[in-house]
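I'll show a sample.
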Amino acid sequence: GEPRKFDPKFRGPIHNRRCTDIICCVIFIVVILGYIALGVVAWVHGDPRKVIYPTDSYGQFCGQKNTLNKNKTILFYFNILKCASPVVLINLQCPTTQLCVSKCPDRFATYIDVQASYRYRPDQWNYFRQFCKPGFNNPRKSVAQVLRDEDCPSMIIPSRPFLKRCFPDFSTKNGVLTVANQTTFKDGRGKMRNVTDLREAANGINNVLDARSVGMKIFEDYAISWYWILIGLFIAMMLSLLFLVLLRFTAGVLFWIFIFGVIGIIGYGIWHCYWEYDHLKGIPGSDLTVYDIGFQTDFKVYLQLRQTWLAFMIILCGVEVIIILMLIFLRNRIRIAIALLKEGSRAIGYIMSTLFYPIVTFLLIAICISYWAVTAVFLATSGEPVYKVMANQTLCKYANLTCDPETFNTTNVTKLCPGAQCTFAFYGGESLYHKYIFIFQLANAFVFLWLVNFAIALGQCTLAGAFASYYWAYRKPADIPLWPLFSSFGRAIRYHTGSLAFGALILAIVQLIRVILEYLDHKLKGTQNSFTRFLLCCLKCCFWCLEKFLKFINRNAYIMIAIYGKNFCTSAKEAFFLLMRNVVRVAVLDKVTDFLLFLGKILVAGGVGVLAFFFFTQRIPVFAQEVPMLNYYWVPLLTVIIGSYLVAHGFFSVYAMCVDTLFLCFCEDLERNDGSTAKPYFMSASLHRILGKKKLSPKKA
C-alpha cells in the first residue's frame, strides 16, 4: 500500500479501459442462462393451481373449470377435530376425508339424528347428503359402517369459507366463544363436545377472520386516499431534494448546533445531579450506600440516596470530557468531513440526474424478486400427487404408507384395516427432478441474492464513476464531461460486469450461509441443547460482522474500479490500504455523514408526517372539505411516513455514495499531488484552506 506516484496525464475516471475479471463475467452469464433454464423447467413442471385451489382426498382441485368440481370451490373437512392432532404437523395433511363442496354447512347436525329421521324429514337428509361422498344415498347402511368407511361426516357445524376451506363460524358472546350462539355440540359419536375443541382445531382462525374485515377496511381507505398519499410522497421528494441542495450551506451549522446542544444538555445534567446531591445533604437515610439497601424493584428508592446522584454526576462528567477532548483533537478532521459534505451537495447540484438513479436499481431488484418468487412457487408446486393410507384404527401397520388409489381396493390393506382409505397427502415425487427440488430452491435463492447484489453493485459503480468525473474535473463545472452518469453506466456494464459480479458473488455466498443459519436456528428452537444454540448464535454473529465488513470493502472497491478500471481484487486491496492510511478521517467522516443523513431522514419523514396528521384529522381549515372519510386515519398516515422515509433514504443513499467517492478521490489527490504548479490539487478551495496548504494553483473551486 505505497502512496501513488504523480501521473500528469491522470484526469479522473480512465477512458481507455480493458475488460476486468473476464472469467467471472463468463460464469455470471452462464449462471444467468442456467437460471432462465431453471425457471423454464419449473414452469413446465409446476402448477400454481396447487397453491390457488385446495385439493380434495381424491387429488382433484376444488373449483377447477371443466371438471365435476367446477361449482364446488370450497374444501370441507369431514372431522375438523382431527386437524388439531400432531399428525397434521408431520404429514402436513389433516387425517380426515376432505371433499369439495359448493357452500359450507350453516347448521349443527349429526349423521345419527339425520339418518333416524330421514323418512319423515327428507329435506334434512338431502341437505346433509351434499356433504357426503359424491353419489352416496343409502340411509339404510348402518351408522357404524358409514362412519368407518367415511361415507359421510359424523357431524356438520355452522362454518364459513376462509382461504377456500370451511372453518367453524366462531363469534364471542359476553366473552364466551360460541358457534351459532352455542357453546356445546354433539360430535355424532354419542358425545357432547365444547366449542373450544373446535377452536383448537381451527387455531387462530378467528383472529384471521377479524383481520380479514380489518383488511377490507384498510383496502377501502387506500382506495379513497391514494391520491393524497401520492401528494404526500411528492412533498417528501421535494423536501429531500431541498435538504440535499441546502446541505452545502447548512451542513456545518446543523452539525455544530447538535454537538453544542449535546454538550449543553449533558452540562445541565451534571448541574442537576450536583443540585440533587447537595439537596439530599442532611436528610436521614440519604447517606446509605447502594450496597446497604441491596436490590430494590422500585427504582425511586435509589434516587433518595446521595451516592446514586454522585455516580450519575461522575458518569456524565466522563462523557462530557470525552466529547470535548474528541472535539479538540478531531476538530480538523470534523472540518474536513463537513467540507466534503458540502462538496457532495455541490456535486449533486451539477449532476442532478444521479438522484433518480435509485429508480433503476429499484426496478432491477423488483424484476429479480418477481422472477425469484414465481420460480419458487412453480418449483414448490411441481410435484406429482402423493397418496397415503389413512386408517381410522391407530394400530394399522399400513397407516401413512404411500399407496396408489387405482389399485388400492385390490390390495389386502382394506381387509387388515377396515375403513382404511387411500387419500391425497401432498405433492412430491420420486423422479430425479423431484428428488432435487430442495437443491433447486437453494440454487434459486442463491442466484437471486447474487443478482440483487449485482444490481446494487452496478448502481454504486455507476454513481462513483459520475461523481469521480466531477472531482477530477480541474475547472468545475467547465471540465465535467457531458452525460457523466450515462457514460459511467456504459463503462461499468461494458468493462466491469465481471468485477461487479465477483464482488456480488462473495457477498451472496455469505448471505446464503446466513439464511441457512437462520433456518437451522428456527428448526432447533425446540431443542434444549444449549451448546448447539450457543454455537449457532456465535456463527450468526460472525457472519453478520463479515457481511458488514464485505459490504464496506465492496463499496470502496467499486469506487476504485469506477476511477481506475482495475480488477476487483486489486481495487479492493488499493481501497483498503488507502482507507487504512486515513483511518481516523474515515471514522469521523462516516459518523458525521451518518448523523446528518439520519437527521435529514427524520426531518423529512417527521415534517411530512405532521403535515399528513393535521390534514387527515381535518385540522387544516383550508383543506377540511377535501379530506376523505376514512375508517382508520392512521392507514394513509403511516403509509405517508414510511413512504417519505424510504423516498428520503433513496435520495440520501446517492448522497452517501457521493461523499464516499469524493473522500477516496480526496485521499488519492493528497497522495498524488502536492499543490505545486507541476502537481496541482484537484480539490475545492474550501478543502484546501482546511488543510492549511500555502500554494494553490489558480483555478475555480
